[in-house]
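Work Package 3 (structural annotation) set out to generate three-dimensional models for the target panel prioritized at the project kickoff. During this period the team completed the workflow that converts sequence records into discrete structure tokens, so that structures can be stored uniformly alongside our sequence database. As a representative example, we reproduce one entry of 135 residues exactly as it appears in the project archive.
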Amino acid sequence: MTTTTSTAPTATLQAIEQAEAAWLVALVEGEKALIALMLEDSHVVHGPVGKIDGREAFAHFASTRRRTVFAKAEELSITVHGDTAITTCLQEMHIFFDENLPPFPVQEVMTRVWEKTAEGWRLAHMHQSKRMPPA
């Protein structure tokens, strides 16, 4: 279910929902897929101490240090202000920290800021807050 707090046209909201869905796919596909959805100067705040990474550093971390094999989102909320959209959701991922162990489920509360570009909606900023253990 998606909730909105703006009067953006339906086509705009659908495009943002598609960007969100593409992000979940990119988490599984890896580094190149993540970078393709991010603005060059985007930043991600993640980890237990609020580490701040640029596009390449985050994509590399997400693809190697914690390889995602499954991702889904629930309770998506979208707010649109012109060419900027703010989304929030609960995101669940199953991640390999160690290839000798089964994937570990992680649930995070996500806030993403998307910017409309000629190529579509691209991630400008993301903040992840872990929920431990997953609810």
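The helical segments are 10-29, 31-36, 55-65.
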